[in-house]
Amino acid sequence: MNRNEPTALERFINGILPENPVYRQLLGMCPTLAVTNSMEPAMTMAVAVAFVLLSANIIVSLIRHLLKPHLRILVFTLTIATFVTIADRILQAYMWDMSKQLGPYVPLIIVNCIIICRCEVCASKQKLGPAIMDALGQSLGFALALASVATVREILGSGTWFGLPVMPAVWPDWVIMVLPPGAFLTLGVLIGLVNWLQNKKKQTA
Amino acid sequence: MNENTDKVKTAEKVEKPVINPSIQVTVSPHLSNTAFTTQKMMIDVLIALVPLLAVAIWVFKWHVVVQVGISVLSCLAFEALFTSWRLKKITLGDYSAAVTGVILGLSLPSSVPWYVAFIGSMAAIGLGKIAFGGLGYNIFNPAMVGRAFVLFAFPMALGAAAYQVAGGMEVLTQATPLTLAKQLGQSTPLWALLIGNTNGSLGETSAIACILGGIYLCIKRTASWEIPVSAIAALIVFAGIGNLTNTSAEWTVLHHLVGGAFLFGAFFIATDPVTSPLTPKGKVIFGIGFAAVVMLIRAFSGYPEGVMFAVLLMNAVTPLINKWTIPVPFGGPVPVRK
Questions:
Q1: Does B118 contact A at CB distance below 8 Å?
Q2: Contact A43, A147 (CB under 8 A)
Q3: What does the alpha-carbon distance between residue B145 and residue B131 come to, in Å, rounded to a whole number?
Q4: Looking at the predicted structure, is the pLDDT value of residue B60 above 70?
Q5: Model pTM?
Q6: Which of A31, A50, B18, B42 has the highest local Cβ count within 10 Å?
Q7: For testing contact with chain A, the best of B150, B154, B312 (most A CBs within 10 A)
Q8: Gap between the Cα atoms of A144 and A14, Å rounded
Q9: Mutating which of A156, A175, A187 best tests the B interface, going by the most B Cβ atoms within 10 A?
């Protein structure tokens, strides 16, 4: 199976920045836009996605020799759906308020392209080690991306970070940043910024 | 323009012997009036805005100086900052940023805190203009993008209730004429709406000032007359239909026409040459659509006035209108290439 596939460590590092799921692959836009109005739901989402991604990658990597090409997407989806259901139930059981706040976006992890993409690109082709490291790296990258968007939106929109006030009391909350337009604007500006940094790095290298 | 004369010069160099032609034969486009620059147009708009500013200063006193001052200065500063980020030549000299600043400032209520004009300018220039590639590339009217941004960012400071300020000037203690009409069914005398002695956004109150400035713009051909004329005609029709269904209403067609920001929008904001259609037919469609959206929002939505949304919505469909109204060139339609 080893046809110049990236090693476990490469997979891990790639996931964080060079192949960041949100900024470089533009995957998982739905949660990135929908749950980033403050840090708390964003980080809950990141943890839920990390759990599902890790579990799905492990299972898919273990059964990769049994996969039939024409049925693989179906198997991926069923595996992901199983773990999403587990994550959703755990959230409802122990974090009811957060579960209500996240609403449909937890069940929607099933159709989050990051997970299906990682199953397809990595887990269905590589051994357990690289698959686990890939899941960890991608989850970390996703968490970083969500955190960056949520930080901008929560600080500008509510003057707080993780619910703690960080701006002076006179700070006028930019309500638009908590609303959907704020998500699009923030994500657009941040993607532009990342592209600019990338170009700059290329030019100096 | 310089380029054209250069071309002529090189052509003369190639064609020997040089004969001074009595008729110049060149390839199109034929720029008939090279004096018609962006800068000249923008100065025309600024001149046309003078009556509005004068009435605003008469009605709202120092509030106008503060709001318009902040928004003009910050528009210029953000224009310089963002263009330098994009490594482009900074063109403050075309005054387009100043016009955006004045229109944005005049579209705000008198009571908003200073940072509203500042952040509105940032959104207007950054999101509305530079993000799309600068003047001439923007899809939406920058001033209205800025105003929409601050409307949603600070709904408390810009909502209908924010216009009414207890204490201070007498004109500010009343709600705006459109809010009065919408919520209480009270009418405002036409005379007050014409001269502008009412509450409202800084630049919108006086219909006479808007018409004066607007006619100047149309005569100078800086604004195309098709947009305001078709918009006014369409508004009269739509408001007339509304009036026929409720003949006892005190808020008549004329009130709809001269009240609120409709004339300000029709003459100064909808006529922005960058974001309005190119052909005369398209401009008429644009004006009718503008008036229709304004009347829809005034009649059926929670907002008392809809000029800002109308301009932004019609800006969004401008490319479509342009596509619909491509003129047939002389000699028949252009054959489609396969």
A1: no
A2: yes
A3: 12
A4: yes
A5: 0.83
A6: A31
A7: B154
A8: 13
A9: A175
